[in-house]
Amino acid sequence: MSHTYELLHAEGAPTPIKGWVRGVPLDEQAQRQLQNIAALPFVGPWVAVMPDVHLGKGATVGSVVPTRGAIVPAAVGVDIGCGMAAVRTTLRAKDLPDSLARLRCAIERVVPVGNGPGGEHRKRPDSIDSRLDQSGLMTRLEAVRAKHPKIRYDKVDKQLGTLGGGNHFIEICLDEGGAVWVMLHSGSRGTGNLIGTYFIERARRELERRVLGYHLPDKDLAFFLEGEPLFDDYVEAVSWAQDYARHNREAMMARVLHELRQHLPKFQLEKMAVNCHHNYVQREQHHGESLLVTRKGAVSARQGELGIIPGSMGACSYIVRGKGNEDSFHSCSHGAGRVMSRTQARQNITLKQHREATAHVECRKDAAVIDESPAAYKSIDAVMAAQTDLVEVLHTLRQVICIKG
């Protein structure tokens, strides 16, 4: 297998940084952040950097951080379990209606979008209650809260099956053969955010009491050590959030498919279906060693494993199969990756540019989604070219409908 990674400069860090970044931008702030996390004594044997890499909070988005005996909550982040789901249908392009706007509105009616009150169900279907009960999610959350009552969960039932805001989306896509796909991107919603925020703060408070024999360059790299009660509590809570996120995507997918059946010809689902996290941590075996692997904006890409790498609102997305590359800890990118911050995008992208870039897609064209416009992201073509030894492309999808929160 040919290797396309390069060793990134890590001044003062004993841990190597392997980056799949040829042909894609890597700004100095993101590289400095990578150096900071590589300097931690419990990180290693190396850090893997995906081509969609960009600055994040605590840890760089688009990075794979293996740790020994410690876990960094800010590296996992607050959108715990965020990820993608996609399914191929037997529908073809000719089966889609002339009015895609009407279909888009129909989907928006059954899957609440946005944050806060606008992101809550007005009428919760029975399936949401039964999903919470049958999955054991409520029982598990109560067990977490019994030890940490400051974790609130007032929206846990209202937000299951809802999209959220930011870069979360629902898309109707066509592949290279004209088959219709449903693809969506979301995570553990408000409750996952509360869990992440709570444990990040607890890690910072623990840091104040620690006596370290080394310099910690960023307080967002505060950590829990294996054997500490907070370590086990965090693992339990983050596992809950990851499972909630997966159920959230499943609930949304069921709603979208139900709505398609009301508006389109009869169809079946094909075997090609994927549901994968890209913000999470789990214990894995690599190189004969048990490691805690944090993927912050990265997807598991074990040999033969299916994954999703989305583009932006106006660019292609990809269904991929992992090649099981050990150097990347069996990982690949989770998308195109931002090239502009949200603030920069609002300042630099005009509404006219956004409308031109999304002219072929039925989607929002207003100023409120400028920060999600294609120009705010790296070239998905360049990102895919940089990781040819991580994944193979099975299907190329182009969206015809894109729903944003």
Automatic annotation (TrEMBL):
Required cofactor names: Mn(2+)
Cofactor: binding details: Binds 2 manganese ions per subunit.
Record carries keyword Manganese: yes
Catalytic reaction(s) noted: a 3'-end 3'-phospho-ribonucleotide-RNA + a 5'-end dephospho-ribonucleoside-RNA + GTP = a ribonucleotidyl-ribonucleotide-RNA + GMP + diphosphate
GO biological process, one term: DNA repair
EC number of the protein: 6.5.1.8
Active site: H334
Binding site for Mn(2+) 2: H185, H278
Alphabetical UniProt keywords: GTP-binding, Ligase, Manganese, Metal-binding, Nucleotide-binding, RNA repair
Residues involved in GMP binding: 167-171, 278-279, 310-313, 317, 334-337, 404
Residues that coordinate or bind Mn(2+) 1: D79, H168
Group of enzyme by EC: ligase
Entry keyword Ribonucleoprotein: no
Molecular function via GO: DNA ligase activity; GTP binding; manganese ion binding; RNA ligase (GTP) activity
Name of the protein this chain belongs to: 3'-phosphate/5'-hydroxy nucleic acid ligase
Protein source organism: Lysobacter silvisoli
